[in-house]
Design brief:
Blueprint lengths: L3 H19 L7 E5 L5 H9 L4 E4 L2 H10 L6 E4 L8 H7 L2 E5 L2 H10 L7 E6 L16 H9 L4 E7 L7 H21 L6 E3 L6 H6 L4 E4 L1 H4 L7
Parallel strand pairs: 1-2, 1-8, 2-3, 3-4, 4-5, 5-6, 6-7
Helix pairs in contact: 4-5
């Protein structure tokens, strides 16, 4: 069984070292613990070690964990592909969504976000490596989608998310992270202000931090191999 407390310490130390190496402000990069495929007890252990942000990809699995952890003040992030028929539950139960990739999803999330909750913090997922099998808006269509998301009153557009192709190697993934940062900078010049770059995982977080990541999504390095596939 993985030592979650020790693993968290190691990951946070890696982030801090990556910030120093890149000349970033200490604390500029936040850790999202990717708990998909792991048990509620693992989240509870990470919470006891000080972790508050958790990422899930499977809606029913996430909602079961939420029900088991109502006594904890957790920040829940949905990071998986979004099916249109799941938008209501995502809008009602999550604090963040990282994977808006089309107009329909954005409009449905806005429609279903309850008025008594703050606007749903949102990132647009960009298909940065051009993989046909991967979710995400094509870079050429990003500006139009960003404008639409930004106009929704129950959404708060925070930034961009990407998952580079694993087969590109570390150098290729770093180029993809750089491209995502450049896309965010371009949107800023076009009047769409962003403050979040959700990029980098267990094996490439240093490269992501070097290219401006503000949120790294780490699962395996904290929790070990997933209990379920997906």
């Amino acid at each position: 069984m993985p030592n979650i407390i020790e693993n968290l310490r190691i990951v946070l130390a890696r982030i801090a070292q990556a910030e120093r190496s890149a000349g970033r402000t200490p604390g500029a990069v936040q850790l999202l613990a990717v708990s998909k495929g792991h048990q509620a007890a693992d989240i509870r252990a990470a919470f006891a070690a000080g972790q508050r942000r958790f990422g899930e990809s499977y809606l029913q699995e996430a909602m079961d964990k939420m029900a088991a952890l109502t006594d904890l003040a957790l920040e829940w992030h949905f990071i998986g592909p979004v099916q249109s028929n799941k938008t209501k539950n995502i809008a009602e139960h999550f604090d963040w969504i990282h994977s808006i990739d089309r107009d329909k999803v954005a409009l449905r999330l806005n429609q279903h976000r309850p008025a008594h909750l703050p606007p749903l913090a949102a990132c647009i997922q960009v298909n940065i490596s051009g993989e046909a099998s991967k979710s995400g808006v094509e870079p050429g269509h990003l500006h139009d989608l960003a404008k639409l998301v930004n106009a929704q009153p129950r959404l708060q557009l925070r930034g961009l998310m990407a998952i580079p192709a694993a087969g590109d190697g570390l150098d290729g993934r770093q180029r993809a992270f750089r491209h995502l940062r450049q896309l965010a900078e371009r949107l800023g010049r076009q009047g769409v202000a962003l403050d979040t770059l959700s990029m980098g995982m267990s094996d490439d977080l240093e490269a992501a931090v070097a290219e401006g990541a503000t949120l790294v999504r780490v699962g395996t390095a904290i929790f070990g191999a997933r209990d379920r596939k997906g």
